[in-house]
Amino acid sequence: MGLIKLVILIILVVACLTLWRRIKAWQAANQKPPADPAQPQLMVRCSHCQVHLPQDQALQSGERWYCCPEHRDADHV
Ligand SMILES: [Zn+2]
Question: pTM (2 decimals)?
Fold first, then answer.
């Protein structure tokens, strides 16, 4: 009977370790999302045509933002 108990104990330990590793991997995968799509994007306004666009698509010139190089250049002449 002692041997069967030992085998069951080993199986339980291995099962716990496997579960633990899976939880750890799942937590690590959930902790660092590459880009949060739920995060509202910062919107800026083109100083030339007043159109709103996400900041990562806008062109900055000093403290002003533009939707395209044409509008940026048009405001500088
Ligand atoms: Zn514009």
Answer: 0.48
